[in-house]
């Protein structure tokens, strides 16, 4: 893949950092304290320096998050970040942040190595799926971030250890069911399907009455894990070891693949679903009146419907909870990025960096950023901010409700194998190469062999 230095909103939201296969600008690092003499004519912020103080702090991030619009991979967010960083710089005139933009494919490994050798930067942007790898190095933010209970449960689960908030999770996204309201009105009771049985029944009615595909999804593992999590399934234990072979987890996975098999066998979902990989494929079919329902990320309603369709027909598309085996089960997959401080201490440089990190999750700052980017705030109070507003993001109230049952991918090495094997299991069932139980047992064997090997 060619590296062009630009990271899209889709890359960040589609399951977090592991999905970004793009390089960022080469890494440059600050030169240390006393290296800069800045006059009145020097800008307060540049692409690689935020603030003009004599004492420097080091920080690693992505050009996705620069406050300089001309340099940003996400220009719409730059004004919100500029306001946030200028406020910090004005409050800390003795400090400046020297910014490095590491190549993405080296970022995590280099950060782990540097942290283990005591050479971590003072602060860094960190993918939410990396946070657990840095628990022993990240410094508490409790004294700088108010009301930790205001964050959604999945945030606290991933970022709080022994009562210490170790990372500031600044935005997220979630998976949901997209559906055509007019078709649900015609073939159902007006409410989207809540259970798998509802989906199968409604889908067959649509298939019989319309020349349209009833339901589609990508075989991408993260899009289909909510079915498993909603049943209470767990992929790994507290030590990061796979536990798919435990009875409850194995049965939950068999149930998921059996549902997927039923979708194909009843004609609700065609076998070509195995070939769907691009996130734009399904909303495109939706816009072309070829699809009634699909699973997708929350930002698609803005990016692939509202901002693309010339008239108001995009409003036929609504969003809802992902259907589950039972009506009292709920889950959605979440991703996003965090900020963390590595510098130890409570005063001086440490206090300045922790205050900088905390500003990403101040409710108003979070609201400004998310309103500009179609991302979702990770704390309840940000939705009430005057800077978010009722029309900041279409269907934001529904997404906010979904986040209460958000589940993040486990930040453990074996997850990549689990995801690969889960995707393969789905493909084998869809293409009639294996029965659900056979596919699950093959998946479990491969995962356990990788972990034990």
From TrEMBL:
PROSITE patterns: PROKAR_LIPOPROTEIN. InterPro entries: Bact_solute-bd_prot1 (IPR050490), SBP (IPR006059). Coiled coil: none annotated. It comes from the Archaea. This is Twin-arginine translocation pathway signal protein. It comes from Haloglomus irregulare.
């Amino acid at each position: 893949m060619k590296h062009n230095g630009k990271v899209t909103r889709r890359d960040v939201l589609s399951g977090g950092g592991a999905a970004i296969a793009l390089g960022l600008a080469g890494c440059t690092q600050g030169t240390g304290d006393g290296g800069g003499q800045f006059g009145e004519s020097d800008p307060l912020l540049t692409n690689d320096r935020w603030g003009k103080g004599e004492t420097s702090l080091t920080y690693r991030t992505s050009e996705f998050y620069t406050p300089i619009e001309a340099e940003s991979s996400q220009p719409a967010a730059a004004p919100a970040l500029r306001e946030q960083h200028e406020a910090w710089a004005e409050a800390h005139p003795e400090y400046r942040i020297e910014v490095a933009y590491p190549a993405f494919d080296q970022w995590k490994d280099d950060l782990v190595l540097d942290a283990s050798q005591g050479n971590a930067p003072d602060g860094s942007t960190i993918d939410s799926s990396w946070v657990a790898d840095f628990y022993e190095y990240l410094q508490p933010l409790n004294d700088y971030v108010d009301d930790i209970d205001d964050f959604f449960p999945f945030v606290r689960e991933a970022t709080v250890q022994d009562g210490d908030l170790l990372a500031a999770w600044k935005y997220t996204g979630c998976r949901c069911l997209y559906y055509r309201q007019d078709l649900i009105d015609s073939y159902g009771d007006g409410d989207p399907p809540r259970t798998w049985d509802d989906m199968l029944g409604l889908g067959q009615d649509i298939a019989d009455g319309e020349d349209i595909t009833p339901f589609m999804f990508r075989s991408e593992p993260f899009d289909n894990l909510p079915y498993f999590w909603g049943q209470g399934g767990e992929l790994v234990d507290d030590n990061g070891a796979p536990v798919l072979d435990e009875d409850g987890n194995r049965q939950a996975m068999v149930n998921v693949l059996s549902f997927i098999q039923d979708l194909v066998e009843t004609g609700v979902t065609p076998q070509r679903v195995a070939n769907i990989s691009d996130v734009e494929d399904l909303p495109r079919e939706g816009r072309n009146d070829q699809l009634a329902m699909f699973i997708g990320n929350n930002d698609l309603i803005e990016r692939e419907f509202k901002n693309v369709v010339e008239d108001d027909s995009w409003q036929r598309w609504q969003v809802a909870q992902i259907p589950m085996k039972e009506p009292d089960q709920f889950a959605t997959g979440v991703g996003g990025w965090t900020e963390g401080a590595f510098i130890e201490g409570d005063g001086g440089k440490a206090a300045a960096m922790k205050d900088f990190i905390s500003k990403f999750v101040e409710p108003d700052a979070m609201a400004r950023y998310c309103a500009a980017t179609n991302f979702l705030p990770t704390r309840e109070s940000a939705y009430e901010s005057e800077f978010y507003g009722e029309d900041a993001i279409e269907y934001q109230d529904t997404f906010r409700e979904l986040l209460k049952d958000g589940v993040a991918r486990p930040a453990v090495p074996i997850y990549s194998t689990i995801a690969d094997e889960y995707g393969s299991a789905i493909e084998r069932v869809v293409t009639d190469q294996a029965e659900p139980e056979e596919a699950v047992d093959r998946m479990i064997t491969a995962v356990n062999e990788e972990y034990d090997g």
